[in-house]
């Protein structure tokens, strides 16, 4: 049951058709194998870059697609539906480019952004620490100014693409002034003193590497600071608002894939002489799954359209992330139920979808944090 989309132009439809083709021909056939062996899909990211899909929402001047978020997110959803690890990786890369694209100088953009958007480089976003996850203002990785370089010490945790990325958009502490003492550095992966720990052993998204990132007297040139000192937390939070829409779109793609698999199975499986989709207990379950997918899609598209028009969208982004990721957890669980015993085996992908659906409720701000954001915005109204 392909998604029924209303796209703003024929060019957007052509781009989506390209994304579907890549997803169908290049990603879906190898996803299960790569996930089973925890194989990082670096070549697939290069393919997305060659196809022009790594910089869709950014300016054409620096190699981007200059496309609205409404279009970018639907492309992202199609990629995630074929392979969630690649979808999440594309979302993380896009968020990793946000600071430079929106807060860097033209000279900085000219120097680094084209390679970041055209597929030669893959990014990571280094904000979280073991003791500073939801409380980002409590981060302690410190950057001390020494002449024309920062000397960085500390450890980042739960970093997607750690050890695989070419650059890290990194939030560091440059003063003890709480949230006002955080700055943003664009750190090259080859930086002396920068290393990564062995990957975390995760229940899902095993093709997406997650690890700690360690700084031991790592030296970063001052001209790699994005924005002024003390602006890092503001940059980080603005990045996350857009990043949450990416995760919402990925969650919808995952839920759509689970729904499609459940539908196909229910139409082909017979019991008591007829397809099981004709039994009310299952058809109502499938109807609820479809309603959840379409509701979640509508939520992220509403937030994206607000963003594209320059309207406030933080509350809508948090709602979209909350609804879509909780919805994906429910839909993937129900897909396993539709397949019954078969759904609990690795002969079908729904068990993997169910495992993968859990972490979107946690990263880019837990869903408990999303409720706090929504409530805070309501108090302002």
UniProtKB/TrEMBL annotation:
InterPro entries: Acyl-CoA_DH_CS, Acyl-CoA_Oxase/DH_mid-dom, Acyl-CoA_Oxase/DH_mid-dom_sf, AcylCo_DH-like_C, AcylCo_DH/oxidase_C, AcylCoA_DH/ox_N, AcylCoA_DH/ox_N_sf, AcylCoA_DH/oxidase_NM_dom_sf. Residues 230-378 form the Acyl-CoA dehydrogenase/oxidase C-terminal domain. The keyword Lipoprotein does not apply. GO terms for molecular function: acyl-CoA dehydrogenase activity; flavin adenine dinucleotide binding. Residues 124-217 form the Acyl-CoA oxidase/dehydrogenase middle domain. PROSITE patterns: ACYL_COA_DH_1, ACYL_COA_DH_2. Pfam families: Acyl-CoA_dh_1, Acyl-CoA_dh_M, Acyl-CoA_dh_N. The keyword Flavoprotein applies. This is Acyl-CoA dehydrogenase. It comes from Amycolatopsis regifaucium.
């Amino acid at each position: 049951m392909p998604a029924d989309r209303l796209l703003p132009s024929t060019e957007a439809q052509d781009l989506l058709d390209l994304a579907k083709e890549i997803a169908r021909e290049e990603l879906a056939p190898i996803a299960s194998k790569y996930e089973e062996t925890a194989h990082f899909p670096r070549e697939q990211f290069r393919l997305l870059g060659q196809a022009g899909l790594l910089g869709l929402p950014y300016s054409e001047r620096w190699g981007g697609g200059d496309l609205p978020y409404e279009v970018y997110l639907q492309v992202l959803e199609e990629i995630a539906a074929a392979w969630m690890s690649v979808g999440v990786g594309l979302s993380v890369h896009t968020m990793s480019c946000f600071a430079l694209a929106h807060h860097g100088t033209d000279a900085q953009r000219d120097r680094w952004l084209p390679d970041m958007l055209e597929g030669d480089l893959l990014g990571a976003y280094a904000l979280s620490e073991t003791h500073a996850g939801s409380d980002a203002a409590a981060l302690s990785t410190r950057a001390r100014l020494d002449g024309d370089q920062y000397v960085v010490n500390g450890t980042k945790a739960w970093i997607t693409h750690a050890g695989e990325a070419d650059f890290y958009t990194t939030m560091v502490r440059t003063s003890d002034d709480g949230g006002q003492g955080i700055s943003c550095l664009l750190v090259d992966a080859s930086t002396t003193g920068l290393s990564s720990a062995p990957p975390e052993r995760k229940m899902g998204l095993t093709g997406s590497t997650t690890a700690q990132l360690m700084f031991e007297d790592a030296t970063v040139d001052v001209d790699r600071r994005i924005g002024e000192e003390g602006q890092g937390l503001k940059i980080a939070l603005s990045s996350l608002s857009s990043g949450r829409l990416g995760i919402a779109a990925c969650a919808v793609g995952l839920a759509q894939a689970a729904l499609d698999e459940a539908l196909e199975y229910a139409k082909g499986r017979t019991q008591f002489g007829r397809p099981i989709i004709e039994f009310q207990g299952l058809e109502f379950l499938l109807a609820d799954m479809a309603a959840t997918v379409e509701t979640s899609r509508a939520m992220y598209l509403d937030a994206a359209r607000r963003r594209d028009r320059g309207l406030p969208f933080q509350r809508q982004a948090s709602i979209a992330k909350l609804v879509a990721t909780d919805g994906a957890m429910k839909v993937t669980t129900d897909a396993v139920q539709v397949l019954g015993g078969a759904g609990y085996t690795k002969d079908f992908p729904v068990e993997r979808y169910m495992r993968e659906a859990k972490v979107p409720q946690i990263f880019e701000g837990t869903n408990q944090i999303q409720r706090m954001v929504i409530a805070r915005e309501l108090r302002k109204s």
